[in-house]
């Protein structure tokens, strides 16, 4: 029988990184992080394979991945008010790889492996007035314009290669027959698109790579008009293709700047001075030509690590960009401006890099921001039952030492005494505590209450001796603390 675990100490093989000094030890159930794993008896056998997240207005996080939809509290544990107390819903033959706000209080999710687009509410329920799109194909990316129309980038693979197409759906999920040919625009086999982005003018951009040879893989960006026709004034007949020697992967992100220029991100190798491998940044003019004022050449490499695949990029209110991605046996985040310069006050020299998990596959699933803190989501591999399984994980870091020192921590807001406790655990709090749940060291919920905590503390006399975690629901969110039962 399977059970879910929200507390693991599996980072014993990690190298120590200076950024770990920025770990928010009040977050999660393991002093700064939470792992989401399944157990079969006493053996870990996999977990929630987190592939994408979105933060809800109340600070909670909706997450999707391989065969699941889940909701986490702002403190990085499974939200037991979701799905009858489990915090997650499991589905067979699903591989949810994208989730985006639909603009109406609901969320669009995309099945990248088996094909499909659906709309869910914040409780993970499928919205009835939305028509699911279920055409069989592999799905690369999705975006939503300001009118709520959905752009779906998909492809089918044959002996000739991958045949790409772009579908536009109306906000209710039905196909927009006015777009392309009956709702679908054929893109062909020439380019391997992995990103679709729509700007405020409803102009459509796609980015990815062109594979010329094994050692010659090039950056490509294509622009479409709002009606789906190719913008022939952009680049060369609608497409920018960077031709100098390079070997980029298919990851791609595009950010639209206020002056009409486009900031692009990918990963791989383009030698720039002494830097060849890492996160590749480039900037295009509005007409699709390389902006050579950017780093003097138009393109540059940030040596995050030898493998620096970008997974999520957002623009911050100050105009800078936050980027997360998959590194070498770890994940990373960095903060940079539109000129490609790192913010050296962020992390260590502009970067936060999680500890390495050598000999394990590690993948970033994006991030969410909380004030001057960032939560990195993703998965790492384990070996179980003669096969590779994956475990979800979330880790929270302060941006820098200054935010660490000035932030109001849970310890400052919540007090537990006596600790260790024998019969009663007393709680002091600046905020009202509207309920609580107590978990043992294996992540099992032992006690809970959904009523306001009264005077006299919590009777823990029935608990066995050992380490426990208490998740307190305050009017400002969840706070997790540890205590010991004598």
Task: Describe this structure as you would to a colleague.
With 486 residues, the chain is mostly beta strands. The protein has a domain at 410-485: Immunoglobulin-like (Sandwich), CATH 2.60.40.3080. 2% of the residues lie in helices and 51% in strands. It is built from two helices and 35 strands. The strands form eight sheets. Strands 1, 2, 3, 26, 27 and 28 form a six-stranded antiparallel beta sheet that branches. A hairpin with a 5-residue loop joins β6 and β7. It is globular and about 75 Å long.
Q: How far apart are the termini?
A: 30 Å
For the CA atoms, what is the radius of gyration? 24 Å
Give the amount of beta strand, in percent: over 45%
The proportion of residues forming helix, as a percent range, comes to under 10%
Instruction: Report mean pLDDT, rounded to a whole number.
Output: 87
CATH class of the domain at 410-485: Mainly Beta
User: Tell me, what's the shape?
Assistant: globular
Question: Segments where pLDDT lies below 50 for 5+ residues?
Answer: 1-16, 406-412
Structural class: mainly beta
Structure summary, number of beta strands:
35
| CATH architect. name of the domain at 410-485 | Sandwich
Sheet with most strands: 6 strands, antiparallel
CATH fold category name of the domain at 410-485: Immunoglobulin-like
Instruction: Report the total helices.
Output: 2
Oligomeric state of this protein = single chain
């Amino acid at each position: 029988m399977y059970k879910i675990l929200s507390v693991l100490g599996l980072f014993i093989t990690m190298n120590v990184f200076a950024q770990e000094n920025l770990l928010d030890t009040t977050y999660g159930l393991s002093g700064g992080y939470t792992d989401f794993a399944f157990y079969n008896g006493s053996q870990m056998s996999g977990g929630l394979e987190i592939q994408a997240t979105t933060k809800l207005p109340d600070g909670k996080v909706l997450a999707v991945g391989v065969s699941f939809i889940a909701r986490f509290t702002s403190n990085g544990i499974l939200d037991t008010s979701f799905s009858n107390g489990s915090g997650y819903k499991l589905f067979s033959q699903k591989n949810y790889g994208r989730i985006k706000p639909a603009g109406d209080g609901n969320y669009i999710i995309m099945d990248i492996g088996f094909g499909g687009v659906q709309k869910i509410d914040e409780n993970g329920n499928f919205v009835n007035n939305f028509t699911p799109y279920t055409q069989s194909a592999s799905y690369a990316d999705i975006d939503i314009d300001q009118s709520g129309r959905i752009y779906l980038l998909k492809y089918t693979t044959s002996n000739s290669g991958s045949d790409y197409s772009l579908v536009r759906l109306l906000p209710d999920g039905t196909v927009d027959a006015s777009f392309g040919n009956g709702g679908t625009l054929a893109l062909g086999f020439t380019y391997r698109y992995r990103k679709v982005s729509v700007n405020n003018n409803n102009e459509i951009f796609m980015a990815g790579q062109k594979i010329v040879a094994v050692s010659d893989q090039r950056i490509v960006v294509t622009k479409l008009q709002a009606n789906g026709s190719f913008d022939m004034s952009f680049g060369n007949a609608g497409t920018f293709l960077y031709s100098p020697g390079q070997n980029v992967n298919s990851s791609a992100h595009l950010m639209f700047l206020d002056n009409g220029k486009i900031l692009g991100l990918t990963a791989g190798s383009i030698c720039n001075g002494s830097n060849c491998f890492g996160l590749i940044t480039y900037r295009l003019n509005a007409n699709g030509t390389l902006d050579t004022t950017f780093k003097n050449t138009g393109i540059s490499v940030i040596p995050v690590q030898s493998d620096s695949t970008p997974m999520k990029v957002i623009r911050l209110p100050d105009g800078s960009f936050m980027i997360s991605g998959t590194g070498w046996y770890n994940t990373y985040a960095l903060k940079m401006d539109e000129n490609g310069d790192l913010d050296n006050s962020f992390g260590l020299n502009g970067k936060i890099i999680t500890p390495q998990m050598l000999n394990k596959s590690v993948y970033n699933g994006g991030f969410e921001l909380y004030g001057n803190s960032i939560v990195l989501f993703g998965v790492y591999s384990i070996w179980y039952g003669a096969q590779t399984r994956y475990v979800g994980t979330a880790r929270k870091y302060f941006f820098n030492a200054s935010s660490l020192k000035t932030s109001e921590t849970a310890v400052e807001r919540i007090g537990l005494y006596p600790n260790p406790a024998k019969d009663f655990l007393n709680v002091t709090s600046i905020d009202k505590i509207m309920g609580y749940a107590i978990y043992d060291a294996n992540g099992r919920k032992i006690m809970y209450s959904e009523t306001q905590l009264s005077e006299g503390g919590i009777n823990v006399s029935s608990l066995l001796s050992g380490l426990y975690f208490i998740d307190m629901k305050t009017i400002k969110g969840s706070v997790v603390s540890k205590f010991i039962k004598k």
